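Hello,

I think I submitted the iron/sulfur cluster job twice by accident. Can you confirm which output corresponds to this input? Input:
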Amino acid sequence: MNNRNWLEYLVKEIHTCVVATVDDDGLPVTAAIDMMDCDENSLYFLTAKGKGFFDRLKKQGYIALTGIKGESTMTSVAVSVRGKVREIGYDLIPKLFDKNPYMKEIYPTEESRKALTAFQIYEGRGEWFDLSKKPIERASFTFGEAERKEEGYFITDACIGCETCGSVCPQSCIDFSNIPAVIGQDHCLRCGNCAEVCPVGAVERR
Ligand code: SF4
Ligand code: SF4
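Support: Only one job matched these inputs. Its output is below.
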């Protein structure tokens, strides 16, 4: 999947996400916000200018969100994104309403829509996490100008191939066919068990 696929999944399959911003005391505040459109490198949503959410977005220019699709934990896919956000303004509102016609029930008149403004998440990082697969599947992605970073647990050349880590790995996602052993990043829970038990400290967290 490419960037657009991950972002489109958020817009079309999940749609309503829990988003987090930070208040003036540095404390987290969450809200349920619909992701209304996307392109290759952006997500778009709207809010009303009278809301505290609007003020927090303008002050911090940063947002984190998670959306989940599934009927139960073990059938769910979760997508999380964190990144920079900026106000686009009213110009995008008619297009967002055309793509999301249910909004016309909430803001029925042109006049009432004047309270709204659109925002763009234009740069950030994302995580895909699919608990419906065995072993679990995960992937990371970046969009906009965000720098790609390697994250997770990795086995270094210090590995002696003792396979102790394999006995505590809940996803059996460590390959011992070579030394150093290799963690299958697409299936790793990042629980840290392997790092805890490794007798030579060969597992490092990045
Ligand atoms: S972090 Fe957890 S899931 Fe990932 S390889 Fe280590 S033990 Fe396995
Ligand atoms: S426990 Fe450490 S040394 Fe043993 S196989 Fe795993 S990473 Fe290598």
